[in-house]
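Input for the complex:
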Amino acid sequence: MSTTTFAEVTAVTPEAPGRFTATVSPAWTIGGKPNGGYLLALLGRAATADATHPDPLAASAHYLASPDPGPVTIEVEPLRDGRAIGHVRARLRQGDRTCVEALFTTGRLGDTPAPSWEGNQPDPGTSDLTAGIRVPAMTPSGIPVAIMDEVDIRLDPDSTRFATDGPTGRGELRGWLTLPDQEHFDPQSLLYAVDAFPPATFDIAPTGWVPTLELTVHVRARPAPGPVRVLHRAHLIDDGWVDESCHVRDVTGRLVAHGTQLAGIRLP
Amino acid sequence: MSTTTFAEVTAVTPEAPGRFTATVSPAWTIGGKPNGGYLLALLGRAATADATHPDPLAASAHYLASPDPGPVTIEVEPLRDGRAIGHVRARLRQGDRTCVEALFTTGRLGDTPAPSWEGNQPDPGTSDLTAGIRVPAMTPSGIPVAIMDEVDIRLDPDSTRFATDGPTGRGELRGWLTLPDQEHFDPQSLLYAVDAFPPATFDIAPTGWVPTLELTVHVRARPAPGPVRVLHRAHLIDDGWVDESCHVRDVTGRLVAHGTQLAGIRLP
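Predicted:
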């Protein structure tokens, strides 16, 4: 049972203009290291705290060093404050070390009932959450994944073959993500959702964790209450790097966030 | 005939530690505004100037304001300098105005002869450059596009229907990109290549230009000499924003760069 809500573990406290404190939860970690999307959500809370532009529309994070669970400082610097959109730089520091720096374009998501146009998208699928198989708090290679005791990730049965029969070679994981206590997603928690799933490369080759180097997120609509459907795919492994994309749809099927990341990988 | 090479229009001159000057070329503009990928390449030259980590592996730019053609300053701040990779913040300023801020993860691209794995990619196509139709220096709606007098973009005949019969609704443009004087692409000019094509949304609806808000590029391999094949696609138009992706392959068919961007769009 979950002991921490997402709102709790991403709370930021203003200390001075442009300066916040926060605590990285030991529960939201993989092998003791905080999830990269979780850290980006922390930065997103701080970057949108002033309420002029309450939503992160685009966020780009570069990961310099992994913070340990515990106290961190978040520094926020407005770069430009326009009428419709703003631009904000945010960085997460622990002691004298910068761990993550991110750029945000902020604004206010509209209330359009549906997109104007959609195309060139992967098949979103029609899987049933209740048929999904929960990702356990341990990887096939034995890394403890504490965060899976917090969030509830249900993979489509067809996406769990990497853990039972071995990788399928498709580099694709599909399923559903639910926050602790079924907390509703908001634009900030979508920054986490695009990085929540296990590496899609687990469906290509068994490896250790795949550390994120760079993560970019576009938040496209305010999600309807409920879990989100996630499609997480790998695209190219070359020279020790892999890029992955993540499509997140709300329960109505609307695409609410898209992420793309570059990560390091050591193939066996 | 071209008057400027890409090397010339992206030259940066060190003025002081972490400070460069450069000149934004009036020839590399669309409706008088510099191309966003061109500006990112300028930042990329400065961000990789110190030669410890000569290649941009990942770059994320947020566009605050469009500079006018003319002199600009580029400020570079190393955020972390590791053994294999570095992290650098770079910003382009004109007068007292920040126009673009970008984060770079830098390193050295390997000499792997081929990727380890590739999947979940759109069909790269087999179009012939010599059959392509050159993009003229004027949009269908009458915006002058000076940059098309510099670079040579040849769209597959099937991708030019937006300009003749009207948009197909597919939101996809395919073709080839050649730099002036057939200059070889390098990792820095690939930062431009992912933003070189006309908006893929021209194949959905005739609009004005589609200004880039955020552009992220992953450079995946050193390109072979020759032109590059480009697949530029739109994915979702919602609430006045569109995301586009761009796959760039060298003449051998290898995926050398991938871009994703969020841009503003006003549908008619």
